[in-house]
């Protein structure tokens, strides 16, 4: 953007509009924040966008009148390759458009939709932006057909993976929508997404296959059950583990998901069939023992704990898992195992001497980031 953009902001009669909470955030905060973003350019940060979040949303839902007036400036800033806050600005656009759908005041909603259509080409162009983080954030702005088109054009896995998950979520939402005259298009979209997911599960790289199964679970909660062997093979393969952190980025999440994060996610998708869910945790534990994978051991103990909280009947399966890991070389694994065995009392009584021996365990004492009493 050029310096004249500040003049354009100043040329608007902002006094005609209202913020979401005018008594705390007067409308002149909006042009002030926009001008700051323009002036800072490459040095702009997420923090510079915070005043806009305070001004452009109505506490009761929907949007205040100032939002539509700010939209062309937000779009221009988001599209400016020299601005340092682009990803946050794209996320802000998505959040505002979501709020617009809930607007109770039709005039406000209509003004936003009119301006959104006017900015449509610029907003759609964000999906093809050279910066992967911008493309990833822009997924939330696309309609169904544009998302599908983007899938066939996108080549970067750090965008393809969240795009795949977004397609699954969007198809599930579409499939669950009330019947309308456009139901044919709705079913065509869901069918096209199913075809994409099937191809990925069949032909793509291992981590993308896991993402495709998770996406299919949005449409069919039994999908992870049907692909449980594939999920276990990928999640327990030491050679694949680093790939998760390289490509499993999600919009609005500042750090990548690790293999351990995804393993816990998959485990939760099986909860509706408790025997299979517990079997999955047991098989993860067996794989972790074969490969001495402490990260996976931690996931196993966390999931075992969760199942025990949900159903005390899981105790006979959980107890031997915890007992086997009580002597693990990893301090965190030993602590988690000790917590589980304590929770399993009195059934875990035969392990009391082993637990007592951990009272002087220096490794456990040094773990400060786990809440609770050692």
Write the layout of secondary structure elements.
Layout: H1 4-11, H2 29-40, H3 50-55, H4 66-79, H5 86-101, H6 106-118, H7 120-125, H8 132-138, H9 144-153, H10 157-175, H11 183-203, H12 206-217, H13 223-226, H14 228-235, H15 241-247, H16 259-268, H17 274-291, H18 294-310, H19 315-324, H20 331-343, H21 352-357, H22 362-365
Helix pairs in contact: 1-2, 2-4, 4-5, 4-6, 5-8, 8-10, 9-10, 10-11, 10-12, 11-12, 12-14, 16-18, 17-18, 18-19, 18-20, 19-20
Mean pLDDT: 91
Low-confidence stretches: none
Strand content: under 5%
Major pleated sheet = none
Structural class: mainly alpha
Strand element count = 0
**Cα-atom radius of gyration:** 25 Å
Overall, the morphology is: elongated
Number of helices: 22
Order of helices and strands: HHHHHHHHHHHHHHHHHHHHHH
N-C termini distance:
56 Å
Helix fraction, binned, reads 55-70%
Structure commentary:
By secondary structure, the protein is an all-alpha fold. The protein has helices at about 5-10, 30-40, 50-55, 65-80, 85-100, 105-120, 120-125, 130-140, 145-155, 155-175, 185-205, 205-215, 225, 230-235, 240-245, 260-270, 275-290, 295-310, 315-325, 330-345, 350-355, 360-365. It has a domain at about 1-140. The mean pLDDT is about 90.
Task: Supply the key terms.
374 residues, mainly alpha, 64% helix, elongated
């Amino acid at each position: 953007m050029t310096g004249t953009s500040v003049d354009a902001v100043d040329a608007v009669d902002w006094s005609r509009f209202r913020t979401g909470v005018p008594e705390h955030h007067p409308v002149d905060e909006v042009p002030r924040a926009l001008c700051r973003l323009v002036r800072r350019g490459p040095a702009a940060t997420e923090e510079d966008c915070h005043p806009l979040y305070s001004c452009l949303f109505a506490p009761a839902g929907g949007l205040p009148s100032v939002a539509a007036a700010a939209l062309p400036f937000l779009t221009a800033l988001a599209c400016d390759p020299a601005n340092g806050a682009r990803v946050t600005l794209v996320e802000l656009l998505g959040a505002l458009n979501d709020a617009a759908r809930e607007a109770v005041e039709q005039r406000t909603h209509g003004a936003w939709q009119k301006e959104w259509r006017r900015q449509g080409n610029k907003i759609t162009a964000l999906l093809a932006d050279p910066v992967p983080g911008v493309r990833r954030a822009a997924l939330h702005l696309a309609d169904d057909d544009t998302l599908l088109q983007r899938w066939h054009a996108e080549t970067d896995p750090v965008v393809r993976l969240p795009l795949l998950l977004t397609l699954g979520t969007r198809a599930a939402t579409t499939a669950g929508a009330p019947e309308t005259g456009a139901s044919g298009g709705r079913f065509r979209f869901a069918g096209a997404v199913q075809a994409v997911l099937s191809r990925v599960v069949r032909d793509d790289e291992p981590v993308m296959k896991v993402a495709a199964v998770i996406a299919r679970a949005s449409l069919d909660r039994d999908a992870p059950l049907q692909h449980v062997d594939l999920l276990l093979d990928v999640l327990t393969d030491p050679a694949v583990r680093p790939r998760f952190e390289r490509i499993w980025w999600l919009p609005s999440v500042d750090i990548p998901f690790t293999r351990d994060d995804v393993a816990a996610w998959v485990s939760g998708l099986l909860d509706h069939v408790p025997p299979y869910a517990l079997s999955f945790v047991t098989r993860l534990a067996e794989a972790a023992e074969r490969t001495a994978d402490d990260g996976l051991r931690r996931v196993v103990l966390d999931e075992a704990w969760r199942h025990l909280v949900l159903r005390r009947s899981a105790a006979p399966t959980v107890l031997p898992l915890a007992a086997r890991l009580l002597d693990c070389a990893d301090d965190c694994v030993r602590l988690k195992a000790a917590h589980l065995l304590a929770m399993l009392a009195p059934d875990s009584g035969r392990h009391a001497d082993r637990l007592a021996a951990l009272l002087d365990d220096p490794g456990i004492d040094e773990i400060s980031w786990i809440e609770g009493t050692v």
